[in-house]
Amino acid sequence: MESKLQELKTHLMEINDLGSAASILHWDQTTYMPPGGAAARGRQLATLSRLAHEKFTDPKIGKFLDDLQPYEESLPYDSDDASLIRATRRGYEKATKVPPSFMAEIQNHAAESYQVWTKARPENDFSAVQPYLEKNLDLSRQLADFFPGYEHIADPLIDFSDEGMKASTVRPLFAELREQLVPIMQTITAQPTADDSCLHQTFPEAQQLEFADDVIKRFGYDFERGRRDKTHHPFMTKFSIGDVRITIRTKEDDLSEGLFSMTHEAGHALYEQGTCTDYEGLPLDGGASSGVHESQSRLWENVVGRSRGFWNFFYPKLQSTFPDQLGDVPIDTFYRAINKVERSLIRTDADEVTYNLHVMLRFDFELDLLEGKLAVKDLPEAWRERFQADFGIVPPDDRDGVLQDVHWYAGGIGGGFQGYTLGNILGAQFFAAALEAHPEITSEIEAGQFGTLHDWLKENIYQHGSKYTAPELIERVTGGPLRIEPYIHYLRSKYGTLYSL
Ligand code: ZN
What we know:
Blueprint: H1 2-31, H2 38-56, H3 59-74, H4 80-97, H5 100-120, H6 126-145, H7 155-161, H8 167-189, H9 205-219, E1 228-230, E2 235-240, E3 243-248, H10 255-273, H11 290-304, H12 308-321, H13 323-326, H14 331-338, H15 352-371, H16 379-391, H17 407-410, H18 418-437, H19 441-446, H20 451-460, H21 470-478, H22 485-498
C-alpha cells in the first residue's frame, strides 16, 4: 500500500508541476511579458492545461484510488494519507464527470464572450453581449447537470470554488446579513461623508513600496520565499511553498490603492507560505476554499490593516515617510479617510460596509437566473431595482451597472461571487477565535507585532492546506458553523466609533 501511495504521489506531483509551470507563464504574462508574446502565450497555457487535465483524468488515477480505499479506511479521518486520498478522489470525480469536449466548448465560448464584453462595456451596450450571456447561462446549467442529485442547480457550481457550501447554507446567511447591513449603511450614509482628500495627494511609488514592504514583513510575509511585482489586477500566485508571490498596483495619487492591495495579497500569501511542507506539490497543497482564502486576505487587509490599533503604531512612520503630505494630517482624519463609507456603484471600489451588498446582489441574481426565475434580457432592469432597494441609488447606465464585472461574461454564471462575502464573514469569525485564545493580540498589534496572531493562524488554518473542507475547518477552529454574528459585531463596534449608529 505504501508503495502504491508513493506511486500515486509521484503521478500527482507531475500534474502539479504542469500546473506550476502554467502559473509561472501566467505570472510572467501579467507582469513582464511584451505584448508580442500574447498569442503564443495563450497557446502555451492551453497546452499545459490540457496535458494536466489528461494526466489527472487518466483511468490509472481511478485505479490507484480504488486500490487505496481499504488503506484509507484503515486510517484516522484526519491522517495526512487518508486526507490526501480523499481530496484526490473528490478532485478526480469532479474532473472525470465533465467530458473534455464540453469543457472545451465552455472555454471557447467564454473567450468569445469576453471579447464581446470588452467592447460592450465601454459602449454601454448590454444588447450586444446578451446572446453570449444567454449561452453562458445555458452552458452553466448544463455543467451543473453533469453532477445530478443536487439540491439546488447552483450547488455544483458553488462547490467548485467553495467545496462543501450549498445554496441552502449560503442563502439564509446572506439574507440575514443583508437585513443587518442595509440599515447600518443607511444610518452611516445619512451622515456627512468622510473627507479622504489626504489620501489623494502625490505619493511617490518608491516610498509607498518601501513602507508597505515593511508592513507585510512584520505580518510575517517571507521575502526569501516570495517576491512582489507590479501588475494591473493584483493577485497572489504560488509555484511552490517556497515561492509564493504577490502582484500589486500602486497609484501616486491614491495612497490606499497600493497599500491595501499589498496587505490584501500578502494575506493570501501568508496562507500559502504557511502550508505544511509535507504537502508540497500534492492536492493538499493549497487553501481550503475561495471563501477561506478570502478570509485571510480580508483579515490582514481590513481587520488588522484598517484598524485603529494598527495605525496607532504605523501612522507616525507613515508620516515620517511622507512628511510634506501627511505631517499636518491628524491620525483621526487619516483613520476616517481609510475607512470612508459611501454608496457607490462599483463593487471593486466599495468599502467594508457596502461591499457585501454588491456581492449578495450578484449571488441572488445567479440563483434566480439558474432557477429560470429571471431572464437574461430582464437583468439590467432587475439590477436597477435591486440597487435602488439596497443602496438608494440607481446606476446611470449599464456600464457601471450590470456590465461592470467580468465574471459572468468570461466564465459561468453561478459560484463566482459568494466567496468574497464568505471571506469577510469568516475573517471576522477567525479573528474573534484568535482573540479569545490570545487576548494579547490587540496590544501586540498596537505595538506593530503580529507573531501571536500569525502563529495562531498557521497552527489552526494555514498548515492544514486543503486537508479539511471549509465547513470542517470552521467547525474545528471556532467550535461551530459559519456565523455572521462576529462580523456584525466587528462592523458595529468599529463603525460605531466612526459614526453614530
Ligand atoms: Zn482576494
